[in-house]
Amino acid sequence: MFAILKLLLLSISSQLNADQGFDVRRHLCTVTRYDVAKDIANTSAVAANNIPNGCTPIHVNLVARHGTRSPNKKRMRELDELASHLGELIREAEEQNLSLEKVPSWLRGWKSPWREKLKGGELIKKGEEELYNLGIRIRERFSELFDEEYHPDVYPIKATQVPRASASAVAFGMGLLSEKGGLGPAQHRAFAVTSEIPASDIILRFHDCCGNYKDFKKRQEPAVDKLKEPVLDEITSALVSRYGLKFTRQDTATLWSLCKQEASVLDITDQACGLFSPSEVALLEWADDLEMFILKGYGNSINYRMGVPLLEDVVQSMEQAIKANEEFQKIQREEPLELPPKPPQSRNWRGSTVAPFAGNNMLVLHSCPANSASKYFVQVLHNEQPIPMTGCNGSDFCPFEEFKEKIVAPHLKHDYDSVCTAKLEEPEQKPASSELSQLFRCLLSLQNDDTRSTKDGL
């Protein structure tokens, strides 16, 4: 989403324990549903306990991913092709008089649930609920910010022009402003959602406007596929032995994609997902996380430097809030990180917790008039949980000036045009070792081709 998040990785173990109940829905990388990715029951209470007495929120800036969506057209085509190929494998086994006893019954004659859809990628009902409920929780959590009458300049809601993103913005706004109007039994009110033209939207769709990033991604994708091949080959061999069908590496990749779509969108975990053991799921999840790490996360500096316009927008909105409040009252160094370690080792980087559907980040500006050192503090929340900032000595409650100096300023030396259009030197390409131990330049961007942001600056 934006460069500041390079400091905000959650320390969440990926260690699996099948004996205590394995839920594949928690291991779907960025296809993970929000309610599955985290327990939101006591979120507000946890964050509230970290706020010093006398401090009150005066501004909230939220950047959120769209909610859970259906497969896009590319995925639907792949699943249609999978259905045809599975039929061929079954017929081939029958012609060779091979036993089909080990083949799951659902797999025989299987057809994609999305085979008759002409378009894909739209927000589903579960995705609407994710953003609607997020809006309600934010209003309840920061109730003192919503006393003022609605005005689009006071509560701006911005989205990209991608339909699932704009629909997510509407669902969020309906939750945020429910009972604030007079429309219908729920007392909804009309509100504005604004968008920029995609070709020039460098705040929310900077990845689509950044030529150098597109070139980098195109160059790196074959190498990333190579890194994933050993995992796919290992699991393909296991599937062939287990079920007696001549699965290919591509079959395994598509079956894993089907598993993620079934589990996330349809809550079906005993079909495609049932083909894989928990340890195989862990490897497939790690392979997905590895791809995300390199192409959209810590893998290269352009992944976060192109997010500078969004960072500038966030800081500017906080400065405006401070100015308005006062009138009314009269990086961290950039360091290389290793790739996510392979299971069964634990790791911090997991797509299911970094960027699930409806994943979000909030920067909350607090006024602390009784504090002698600083009158304004910033709190960062990732998926509604407070996150320590290394640039602020590990605190999740950082003086605003220190926040600007130590976290924001190092990134503002990079200009979007120079990052995205200037001729870049080709980095030396080093072969990947069998242990995948080479280092990559790093910081974090949750924004990517599959990530659309809904922004609410309060």
Automatic annotation (TrEMBL):
Where does the secretion signal sit in this chain? 1-18
Q: What class of enzyme is it?
A: hydrolase
**Disulphide bridges:** 55-368, 259-273, 392-398
Where found, per UniProt? Answer: Cell membrane
Keywords, comma-separated and alphabetical: Cell membrane, Disulfide bond, Glycoprotein, Hydrolase, Membrane, Signal
Q: InterPro entries annotated for this entry?
A: His_Pase_clade-2, His_PPase_superfam, Histidine_acid_Pase_euk
Could you name the Gene Ontology cellular component terms for this entry?
A: plasma membrane
- PANTHER family reported for this sequence: MULTIPLE INOSITOL POLYPHOSPHATE PHOSPHATASE 1 (PTHR20963:SF8), MULTIPLE INOSITOL POLYPHOSPHATE PHOSPHATASE-RELATED (PTHR20963)
- Supply the name of the protein: Multiple inositol polyphosphate phosphatase 1
Q: Name one GO molecular function term.
A: inositol phosphate phosphatase activity
Kindly state which reaction or reactions the protein catalyses.
Answer: 1D-myo-inositol hexakisphosphate + H2O = 1D-myo-inositol 1,2,4,5,6-pentakisphosphate + phosphate; 1D-myo-inositol 1,2,5,6-tetrakisphosphate + H2O = 1D-myo-inositol 1,2,6-trisphosphate + phosphate; (2R)-2,3-bisphosphoglycerate + H2O = (2R)-2-phosphoglycerate + phosphate; 1D-myo-inositol 1,2,4,5,6-pentakisphosphate + H2O = 1D-myo-inositol 1,2,5,6-tetrakisphosphate + phosphate
Main localization category: membrane
> Which EC number(s) does UniProt give?
3.1.3.62, 3.1.3.80
Q: Which family does it belong to?
A: Belongs to the histidine acid phosphatase family. MINPP1 subfamily.
Q: Which Pfam families match?
A: His_Phos_2
